[in-house]
Amino acid sequence: MQRRQFFWGTGIFLILVLIPGLLLAGSIRKQVFFVQSYEPGVGCGALIEKGLLKGLKDLGYEDGENIDIVRLSLKARMTNITPEKIQKEAKDTIYRIRDKKPDLVVIFDDIACEHVMLPLAKTDIPIVFTGMNVSPEFYNTRREFMVSRANPSFNITGVTEEADYIMMFRLMHRIFPRARRFAVTYSCNTPFNVRMFNEFQEQAGKIEKSCQLSMVAVQPVGTVHDFKQVVSRFNGAKDIDFVFDLCLSSLLDDQGKVAPVNQVIQWMSLNQKKPGCTFLDSRVKEGYLTGTVINLEECGRQASRQVVQILEGANPGDLPIERPADIYIAVNRARAEHLGIKLPGDIIEAAKVVYHVLPAKPKRQ
User: Fold this and answer.
1) What letter does residue 190 receive in the DSSP assignment?
2) For the chain, what is the largest distance between any 2 Cα atoms, rounded to a whole number of angstroms?
């Protein structure tokens, strides 16, 4: 009788103590760190994050429900704009990641890729990067984090933000068959913008060969004032048919503060007399004429599938590094009207997205 009571008592103890512990363990939410290059809501990373969260929700993962998202930022657009400040913020961020050991880290944009992702390469911390404009091969020369795109092999995978420049310039040639010469501008205030231009320049020969278009002028700019002067000069240049603004982030205004990119583009849309192209859908919406573009929210959705695979047990090194899956034509008919350009009907039909408003232009009453 006493033995039976002992076994009953032991069984009840196990039920009351061990089973709740097992249930609690099964309900512990996985922790995911988001590391943005820029301040919250700023830059391409903000749109990528928006799409990533939508993708996670569609796949059954929500912050506060079955995952906990911790947001960190290098604040490298408006606050930490010097290399020294960026490195200090990155060092603090890496310390927090190593200390907390999250189940996964998601990296947004090139600055965080360089200063946070690379130092964590070949560690036991799984990482998914997004918004990488400069090629993975370049970063791999700084510190090895992959064997190849198809087989990264270590703790890092991701989705790049690489543009298809050849496709974009073929589009411009179709719209402007008589065009032969173009100019390029880019912000020279950050190293990754300069690297983007260097990689674009490597493709200039291919563009000339396949599109019969020659790059006849290159102008790096550091301030909004510089950019406005360049626009004025290009407006009067007879040997320039159109302009490609590669990247206008981090331009400084008259007070020495970083000007919002959308405001710079909106000014351009009303003052630049030459047509311009871009590789981002959001930039066509702001005022560029056209482009074969990347949708940043869709890049986020694409990355969300990698995130879920890793949360469910996959090794990042087994997941191929991907390019943006959906590159398509976008046009802004309001910009075309402002320039006095009639877009070919086949281009309008081929466009996946057509915008009809210039945000900088007052709406008609």
Assistant:
1) S
2) 105
